[in-house]
UniProtKB/TrEMBL annotation:
Cell location: Cytoplasm
GO CC terms, sorted: cytoplasm
Record's keyword terms, sorted: ATP-binding, Cytoplasm, Nucleotide-binding
InterPro entries listed in its UniProt record: ATPase_NBD, MreB_MamK-like
Gene3D superfamilies, per database record: 3.30.420.40
UniProt-recorded name of the protein: Rod shape-determining protein
GO molecular function: ATP binding
Xref: Pfam families: MreB_Mbl
Organism of provenance: Streptomyces sp. R08
Record-linked PANTHER family: CELL SHAPE-DETERMINING PROTEIN MREB (PTHR42749)
Length: 277
């Protein structure tokens, strides 16, 4: 009886996307206002409103950084990506999550992503994804300020991991005569001040001296960024294309992860989600 052929190592079977024919992948950033995705083999980012239509009228399944309608989120993802995936493919998915989303957010997100028949689902904090997108030096403390449409989040990274984070349910979509841009800037200053006061070491101070990375649509609002620079007495740097920085960082991690042995086998996604810190 002939011996079966010995399988080649996983790293030999995989090639960089889009030339890898063994798997497909999705980098996904679920926002309260917009959802953005990068698919293996594509040069552009898919960008759509985070809206689902179960019947009459628009429904917003993600609000203030929380998934409030999981089936609606799944329908939106299916409408956005279902027809773009290989018919029999099972993608590797890397999903960005709010720093303070914790287990509840990741559980609801995993349930929604099941509609895409994932082989493996990994999660990464938005702040970490942003740092990866801009090739930030993660050996030094880093302050990331996410000025979103419905949520503003401040995260402190040390050695590449989030060590402190704050958020407020306030974003650029709330700006009007009663809520001026200065209110968002003041909220960020208050969160950073609390970080400095409660930091047992010097991570927050070191990161502040280095300057802050700004991401999200609010990073394009000079009336917010100028006020932040004045109030924090430090450089504030909007990252290139700040609205898509998180999904671009997730895409970089996805391209590195798809050749890893842990993503090559068929993994039972009913268990706990792996997490990329």
């Amino acid at each position: 009886m002939t011996n079966p052929p010995v399988p080649r190592p996983t790293s030999d079977r995989h090639r960089p996307w889009p030339w890898c024919r063994h798997c497909c992948g999705i980098a996904l950033d679920l926002g309260s206002a917009r959802t953005r995705a990068w698919l293996s083999g594509r040069r552009t980012i898919i960008d759509m409103p985070t809206v689902t239509f179960p019947g009459v009228g628009s429904v917003y399944p993600i609000q203030r950084g929380c998934i409030v309608d999981t089936p609606g989120t799944a329908r939106m993802l299916n409408r956005m990506l279902g027809h773009r995936l290989p018919r029999f493919g099972r993608p590797v998915v890397i999903l960005t999550t709010p720093v303070l989303g914790a287990v509840a957010y990741r559980t609801e997100a995993r349930t929604a992503v099941e509609i895409l028949r994932p082989r493996t689902v990994l999660t990464v904090s938005t702040a970490r994804a942003v740092a990866v997108a801009v090739d930030a030096d993660l050996t030094r403390p880093l302050l990331v300020v996410d000025l979103g449409a419905h949520l503003t989040e401040v995260a402190l990274l040390a050695d590449g991991a989030v060590v402190d984070a704050r958020h407020t349910a306030l974003g650029t979509s709330d700006l009007d005569r009663r809520t001026p841009p200065a209110q968002i800037a003041d909220a960020v200053v208050a969160m950073v001040t609390t970080m400095l006061e409660e930091d047992p070491g010097s991570h927050a101070l070191d990161a502040l001296r280095r300057g802050a990375l700004l991401v999200g649509g609010g990073a394009l609002r000079p009336e917010i960024t100028y006020r932040l620079a004045r109030r924090l007495h430090t450089p504030v740097q909007p990252v290139p294309a700040p609205q898509t920085a998180a999904v671009r960082g997730a895409a970089k991690l996805l391209q590195a992860a798809h050749t890893h042995p842990s993503t090559s086998a068929v993994i039972d996604v009913t268990g706990a989600l792996p997490r990329l810190v």
